[in-house]
Amino acid sequence: MTGSVLVVDDDADARELLERELGRRGFEVASAESADRALQLLGERPFEVVVTDLRMPGTTGIQLCEQVARAFPDVAVIVITAFGSMDDAIHAIRAGAYDFITKPFEVAQLAIALERALQHRALTVEVKRLRATLADRTHFEELIGESPAMERVFELIGRVSESDSAILIRGETGTGKDLVARALHRRSSRREGPFVALNCAALPTNLLESELFGHTKGAFTDASDERKGLFLVASGGTLFLDEIGDMPLELQAKLLRALQERTVRPLGGERELPFDARIIAATHHDLEEAVAVGDFRQDLYYRLNVIAIELPPLRARGGDVLMLAQHFLTAFAGKAGKRVTSIAAEAALKLRAYAWPGNVRELQNCIEHAVAFARYEAITVDDLPAAIKGHLSSQGVLATDDPAALVPLDELERRHVARVMEAVGGNKATAARVLGVDRKTLYRKLRRHGITLPSEGHS
């Protein structure tokens, strides 16, 4: 990482040394002989980091920290001094310094501190930008995001919402498939009609059939009254069949017939009753694979998959993680009556590095936890749940020349297979193609390495 650095020191030799050595490392460096001159330069051109000596004639490094924090809050400050003490360090940090380095030091040590400061600054600026964006922008219905992946989803929703064709929303658990279904309904010509949702995985077969098609009085033991099914309840509006991939096979045939004929027969009934509802289905399963192994009817799959909307996992949405985190923070802080307004840069870095196998739902739970534990106005790393706080990236090849840090080939394979499964959202067919192996070989590797798929480890 490189960036623009302003070196402030009354010692000309020290300034020239740092300008030369940091310049060799790719930093864009300028210098000032005093704090007053530094403030003048900061007003004339943008800098990302200030590196300042502590003891200088006139305005001191501590005073410069305070003035930079007030006038240029996005600029990180690193203080250097030959008179290092704990009191100096505390005063510098309280004055707004990001880091504190004691002379003598290696330029490589300063370069590392600069890289950390630049990363800290970039995340701080990003969090501020996202807070402003959330305050100013109009969300796409209840969906939040500005990543290219979500922009494509927003565009597709806008294009197909007026259509009456069946829509299949596909995406991992926790990605917000229900929010997409509601957005489609609200933007359709059926918006004044009812939006009726049913989770097909939540009920046993007999109750699911009764919910969908209704029943007559006495149709079964507990049927003391006649009940209208959800197909009829949703007439004039939208019927959302969530987790359609979990519908039992015996019920899939009845659903297919209802979709083809646009009529339903209540349990115990003798007449077919017409319905007029748009059908939107959603699943986290790979339905093509389910069709291949006989767990899902192919003809029903084609009937539902007229228009497909693929909802990206959170790990593929880049900066949306922090945008969503800020949105949840504002909501939970308001509900709890706590003055928590932002996310510290180090915590933001943890949020960006985590893979979020539970997607937006897991992020929402994480921020609710963090707000509950927060002691300051900004969420810190200590406020995050243990899984996020202690997360280590599933890096394959380690960027190190230290033999002690290198890993055996078997461990390298485990990390790579785990990373591929994470990247494809647990889709075994896709993972096998990426790894260049057949599915049986992939299963063997998953079992041998004890790798749990996202859908198996998270609800």
Describe this structure as you would to a colleague.
This protein is an alpha/beta fold and 459 residues long. The protein has four domains: 131 residues, Response regulator (Rossmann fold, 3-Layer(aba) Sandwich), CATH 3.40.50; 152 residues, 3-Layer(aba) Sandwich (Rossmann fold); 76 residues, Helicase, Ruva Protein, domain 3; 55 residues, Arc Repressor Mutant, subunit A. It has 20 helices and 16 strands. Strands 2-1-3-4-5 form a five-stranded parallel beta sheet, with helices on both faces. A five-stranded parallel beta sheet has the order 7-10-13-6-14. Strand 3, helix 3 and strand 4 form a beta-alpha-beta unit. The longest helix is centred in the first third of the chain and has 30 residues. The two termini are 38 Å apart.
